[in-house]
Amino acid sequence: MSILQTQIAALKAALSRFWHTPFTSLFTLLAIGVAISLPAGLYLGLANLARLAGNLPTQPEISLYVSGNASQDQIKKLERLLTGRKDLQSARFISKEAALKGLAEAGGLTDITAGLDANPLPDAWVLIPVDPDPVALGKLRADLERLPGVGDVSLDSQWAARLQAALHIGRTLVGLLAGLFALALVAISGNAIRAQILARRDEIEVSRLIGATDRYIRRSFLYHGTLQGLLGGLMALLILLLLVLGLQNPVSSLATLYASPFKLGFLNPSEQGLILLLAAIAGWLGAWVAVSRTLRQVDPSR
């Protein structure tokens, strides 16, 4: 019970410091919120971009075009070879007649294609490889080009792979920025706590004279640092929410021009909780470092 009362007293002391210094606390929380919102905002932007790209074909495809002078025996042999390969997930045949019909319907070229004397399109296969690794795809493409009756082989969806690679780089950058801004958050929280300790130097010295330990003195400041980080995380979420609301209409208008229902999303509850947790930990760590260092400076004999 005594331990619980001590913790409650330290928490009340931390809350009273926010109450007695409202403007200083507000600006500190705003600085922490901005520091957190920068990497969190970049992460949110990448999450929305990944969600937009999630509806796009990211699995590489190989288009194999049958040679125009290939015989029926070669075409049937090619079919057996492709459907029996273990390095292909699937092999879908598209006849030149179906390809011409699809082109005419998709491009509104029915009148033009109807006037053609001969079908200029070749028979083709759409292949899905098992291994999407670029090196494996290059070897597979070279192997397919050597098959009899093959006119050309092209690797599609490379842009999707590049997009995923760019997203991976972006996520790595977010991680690095989050680490840097975590250090900034520790510094901001630590400086704010240090200023409060120095402002109460006489109070701390008197507390020591009547038997207060450093652990007892440190406790309320640790609560203050934790609450400071937690409230700063809430400030960051508020900043991000305002940014999303401000960009929602322009993004929706742009998506409408491309006949897309895409809308900006926000962080899910687990991501919001993680931001608050990391902010609270950084605030606690900054307070610990600042209190431990400043208490030694307040009492040089220690």
Give the structure's gist in a few sentences.
With 302 residues, the chain is α+β, with helices and mostly antiparallel strands. Helices cover 72% and strands 9% of the residues.
Topology (elements, then pairings):
Layout: H1 2-20, H2 22-53, E1 61-66, H3 72-83, E2 88-94, H4 96-107, H5 110-114, E3 124-129, H6 134-145, E4 150-156, H7 158-199, H8 201-209, H9 214-257, H10 269-298
Antiparallel strand pairs: 1-3, 1-4, 2-3
Helix pairs in contact: 1-9, 2-7, 2-9, 7-9, 7-10, 9-10
Order of helices and strands: HHEHEHHEHEHHHH
Count of helix runs? 10
Could you tell me how far the N terminus lies from the C terminus, measured between alpha carbons in angstroms? 31 Å
Topology, number of strands: 4
Mean pLDDT: 78
Shape: elongated
Number of domains: 2
Provide the spatial order of strands within the biggest beta sheet: 2-3-1-4
Q: Strand-residue fraction?
A: 5-15%
Instruction: Work out the radius of gyration.
Output: 32 Å
Share of residues in helices: over 70%
| Helix-strand category | alpha+beta
Q: Runs with pLDDT <50, length 5+?
A: none
Largest sheet: 4 strands, antiparallel
How would you characterize this protein structure?
The protein folds into two domains: 2-55 and 161-298, no CATH class; 61-156, Alpha-Beta Plaits (2-Layer Sandwich). The longest helix is centred in the last third of the chain and has 44 residues, at 214-257. It is built from ten helices and four strands, in the order H-H-E-H-E-H-H-E-H-E-H-H-H-H. It has helices at residues 2-20, 22-53, 72-83, 96-107, 110-114, 134-145, 158-199, 201-209, 214-257, 269-298; strands at 61-66, 88-94, 124-129, 150-156. It has 302 residues and is α+β, with helices and mostly antiparallel strands. The two termini are 31 Å apart. Strands 2-3-1-4 form a four-stranded antiparallel beta sheet.
